[in-house]
């Protein structure tokens, strides 16, 4: 099922959240304890602890975390940021996840359409100021969409880039003031491939077309075999992250 961003904004006010102090205390209490736990157990703990105030975010590169969650947290919200610049394959993967998995896919959109952003900032902002473009189309919409949650899960893995080496399994996201859960933080590339093969998990078809890391089409390039999987993101610039995980 796919819900709209407006529908999600209403649901967020249905239950009161914990204070930042309470959330930080939870992280301090269980963070180290869950560090070596299986991914399903980590998600199960988060769902039991936060209930409907826990969600998954997905960029629809694959549905590994959604698949794990559907087993132990059926019906869980899966938040997808539609920047307006996604490949058709990414939107298709989102639709396939929504149609076939026991999760609640919620599509969040930026305040401005691409046309409105072009009118205010000029066309192709991604070429001139990708940090501002990401702030407007990714960082701010995600921050707003997480208002109704105390905790969010990502598919972040330490093996992906050196910037992600220290991603804790359960950590405190000081900027968003949320508990950030990375259930597959310890997984290697081989772990991911094995889980996908063993469980028939949905994968964005671009992954098999030399796009190991998939973002917006203007900022994503194919990667040569053996190169850093994220080297196709913002290729030719110093930018390596959109800002969501910083
Ligand atoms: S990845 Fe590129 S197109 Fe997408 S929001 Fe960032 S700068 Fe804009």
Structure notes:
The chain is an alpha/beta fold and 246 residues long. The protein has one domain: Rossmann fold. 37% of the residues lie in helices and 11% in strands. It has helices at residues 5-11, 20-30, 39-50, 64-72, 88-100, 114-121, 125-128, 130-145, 189-199; strands at residues 2-3, 54-57, 77-81, 104-108, 151-153, 170-173, 178-181. Strands 1-4-3-2-5-7-6 form a seven-stranded mixed beta sheet, with helices on both faces. Helix 3 crosses helix 4. It starts with a strand and ends in a 47-residue tail after the last helix. It binds iron/sulfur cluster. Iron/sulfur cluster (SF4) is lined by residues 83, 85, 126, 130, 133-134, 137-138, 215-216, 218-219, 242. Iron/sulfur cluster is lined by residues 83, 85, 126, 130, 133-134, 137-138, 215-216, 218-219, 242.
């Amino acid at each position: 099922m796919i819900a709209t961003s407006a529908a999600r904004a209403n649901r967020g006010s249905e239950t009161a959240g914990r204070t930042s102090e309470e959330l930080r205390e939870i992280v301090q209490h269980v963070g180290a304890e869950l560090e070596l736990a299986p991914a399903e157990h980590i998600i199960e703990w988060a769902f039991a602890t936060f209930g409907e105030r826990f969600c998954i975010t997905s960029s629809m590169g694959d549905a590994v975390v959604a698949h794990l969650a559907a087993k132990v947290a059926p019906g869980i919200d899966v938040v997808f940021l539609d920047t307006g610049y996604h490949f058709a394959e990414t939107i298709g993967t989102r639709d396939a996840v929504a149609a076939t998995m026991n999760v609640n896919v919620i599509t969040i959109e930026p305040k401005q359409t691409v046309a409105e952003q072009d009118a205010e900032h000029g066309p192709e902002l991604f070429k001139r100021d990708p940090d501002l473009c990401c702030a407007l189309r990714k960082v701010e919409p995600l921050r707003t969409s997480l208002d109704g949650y105390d905790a969010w899960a990502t598919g972040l893995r330490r093996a992906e880039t050196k910037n992600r080496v220290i991603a804790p399994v359960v950590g405190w996201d000081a900027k968003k003031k949320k508990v950030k859960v990375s259930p597959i933080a310890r997984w290697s590339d081989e772990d991911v491939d094995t889980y996908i093969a063993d469980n028939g998990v949905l994968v964005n078809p671009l992954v098999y077309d030399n796009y190991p890391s998939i973002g917006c089409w203007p900022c994503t390039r194919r990667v040569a075999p053996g190169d850093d999987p994220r080297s196709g993101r913002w290729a030719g610039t110093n930018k390596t992250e959109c800002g969501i995980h910083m």
